[in-house]
Amino acid sequence: MNGRLLCLILLLILLLARDIRGFKKSARRERIVYAALWLPLLYLGLLFVAELPWPNLNTIFDLFAKPASRIVQWLKA
């Protein structure tokens, strides 16, 4: 867990260091969008570090698997 936490913190620091200049110059709407994009990143980072059995990207993909296969079968017919 400590290794994963260190990896996540390092990645977050690097991302923030890279984006800080653009963030300071951005408008209010852009900052809101940027923060909204960080929410899933932080959620998935928490899942990665804590190894929690909460819904993740695989769950979302599984939701679309059946409808996607039905569309493919419909197109093949």
Write the layout of secondary structure elements.
Layout: H1 2-25, H2 28-50, H3 57-76
Helix pairs in contact: 1-2
Report the C-alpha radius of gyration, rounded: 18 Å
How many domains make up the coordinates? 1
Low-confidence stretches: none
Compressed to H and E, one letter per element, the order equals HHH
Distance linking N and C termini? 49 Å
DSSP, total strands = 0
Q: What do the pLDDT scores average to?
A: 91
Structural class: mainly alpha
Strand content: under 5%
Q: What is the overall silhouette?
A: flat
User: What is the makeup of the main sheet?
Assistant: none
Q: Name the helicity range.
A: over 70%
Count of discrete alpha- or pi-helical segments spanning 4 or more residues: 3
Account of the protein in words:
The chain has one domain. The protein contains 3 helices and no strands. It has helices at residues 2-25, 28-50, 57-76. The longest helix has 24 residues, at 2-25. 0% of the residues are buried.
Question: What keyword list fits this structure?
Answer:
77 residues; mainly alpha; flat
Describe this structure in a few short sentences.
The chain is mostly helical and 77 residues long. The protein has helices at residues 2-25, 28-50, 57-76.
